[in-house]
Hints:
Keywords: Hydrolase, Membrane, Protease, Serine protease, Transmembrane, Transmembrane helix. The chain has 809 residues and is an alpha/beta fold.
Amino acid sequence: MTMLTGPPAAPVPQPPRETGPWPVVAAVATGVWAVLVTVPGQVTGWLVDQVVLVTGVDRVVAGWPLVAVVTALLVGGPALALALLPRSPAVRAAGRAWTGGAVALGAATLLRALPPVHHEAYLAALASTAALLALVVARSTRRAAGPVVAPAATPGTAGGRRRPGAVTLLAAAAGLAVLLPWLWVGALGGLLETVLAGLAAAAFGVLAGVLLGPAFWAGLVPGTAVRPARLVLVGGLVAGVTLALLAAGAGQSGAQLPGLVLLPPLGFVLGALEVAARHAGRPAGPAPVRWLVALALAGPLALTDPEEITLLLATSRDVPFWVAVGTGVAFAVAVLLAVGYGVLLARPRARAPRRGVAGLTAGALLAAVAVVYLVPGQPGLYGERLLVVLREQADLGGLPAGAPGRAGRDARAAEVYRRLVATADRTQGELRRTLTRLRLHPTPYYLVNAIETDGGPAVRAWLSGRPEVARVLVDQRPRPLPAAAPPARGDTPTPTGPTWNVSLIGADRVWSELGVTGAGVVVGSSDSGVDGRHPALAGGFRGGDDSWYDPWEHRRAPADRGGHGTHTLGSAVGRDGIGVAPGASWVGCVNLDRNLGSPARYLDCLQFMLAPFPPGGNPLTDGRPQRAPDVLTNSWGCPPLEGCDPGALRPATAALAAAGILVVAAAGNTGPSCGSIADPPAPYPDVLTVGAVDRSRQLTEFSSRGPAGTAAKPDLVAPGAAVPSAFPGGGYATLDGTSMATPQVAGVVALMWSANPALVGDLDRTRRILTETATPATVPAGATCGATRDLVGAGLVDAYAAVRAARAG
């Protein structure tokens, strides 16, 4: 009899075969083209950012958006053609993945228009953009590809349970292995910053899971047959290019470069995991991709500060060095994982991985992550702080003229200190109490009426809305390193007799002919520190319990790891022929750590210079203005990268000038651009700003130019090219920069005030003598920045003429 049966099953349609190799050739060419466009574009964009930073040129906001549009068109166009035109499912799968990666790269790169200082806002936008793209791509992929035919999940598998399967656990283990190096070399930022970085990494993981999920692998290798070599090699290459596109968009200011190196090898890991899943009778699904990519990107996104991946720190073993180390180790781990997973999981007769073994592997890696983070790593949160500048600043008008010389200067300094502290106490009380209740650890300042406090964007927005607050600056805090850089050491022979720069400005004639060496004058140095044991500097230290302050590490004795501060102070007061005023005394403060500062650290040192205090003392109650140094040398500037705006330190220099303390500051090394004297305190009118010339009295190319707003800057120039001076460890070094020129002018002031103590604190007469006795300096051909004064000021400082004029006065 006839059996009743259902209709015959419809055959699964097989894709038509291509008639030639051209689609494959086009796919290979498109993949190579995508890499050649993406990698150089990202590296070049970062280098341009660095050049802009180093040269002091205004940041081009439209730069990265332009790169985004060009990259998306150059990569996305050919990729879209692959996704639409060929009949090969594999080629079309590659085209779809690369098109999605190009769109994601373009959209994420647009976000770099946000200033790097607002890192939390950038991370929030990055996470939102990646999540939105994942949603859009997932819907478009489902509409374009239709349902993916896959074997039904069996009980106990990843498809039938919510528990992660063996393949997902192995993917998580691989991601943790790639994360390990970053936990060793890096450190976390603030709490919100860390959470947002984790969300951004997770969102990119979800996006990668959509682009490289079941539809991708089903298109790349149609059917259910396991083809290990094709899955690992071809799938790994296609997935690697996709991951490179995603990584290029994940991060700013150089944080995207590590991911661009270490993510592509993980494409082969994904291929091996797909083979392992198919050995178990089912596709891997998106979960392994999500875990692997999210954990791999969490390292560079969460454990590095993008503002510290800068060429400004590349001269020592600082963040750029350790980021390179972390990237190299993570890349090696990724390559080893690709080889190991390929050998263990992708063999033709390999058994499906067991969930128990995979769980133990992931657990062991998780334990290793905890150990590395807690032992050789830098556990804790190291987010930026905020500097809250209040609207009301102290009224320093109507100060009594007082007696000439140091007695009058000390009286003015005491009155300035009293008014500043009184204003801070009267206006900060309520806000300080509120911040303390919120456990935001406020630190009061008086030289600028301000409060440093913890807090992220939400706290900043709340503070900015308070009526007593003028503005809120981001106060940068460098993240710790796994190991301190080796201390700087000099390699230049010990000078014999006066150095060329000392002779060029006539300081040696002041010693020999006028008998003036700077005795009785105190020079204050705010810099990277001072090697207090250096033979050229040890004898000049003023001593006492209020002549040295280190707000970074609170070291009790003068020390200097970087060497910059030792070199600059040596040019001011060093003995053995290197310093302009070898008979002067010095006091010091550390306002730079690893060549980085912040508004609060600069204020720490400037406050100490107005009213020194003993170790552990309170600057607002224990200051001693009668012990203030006479002249300050400042070979530093506070750019926007460190959190300063143009007016950040303006009340501070105004208060020091009112107290009769002369502030000498470097013009900067961002020449030959016009108007490049921009970073505080160099542009301020009450600061004596110094540019640099070479042996032939010609303005150096690097010396920053004016004008500074409406003011003519610099005020003077001094030797700043190939200047020899002291360096830590008892040695010497030759350096270039307006940093080297600045302390020589401070030394000339010390000679003038030593020759005529009645001039101490008389800043107007001192400036007038310096400018009237300056000698002409040469301007390079073609150097035009307004008037000559905007290039070399009044000219080259002349110590001999200035001291004679001071003595005659």
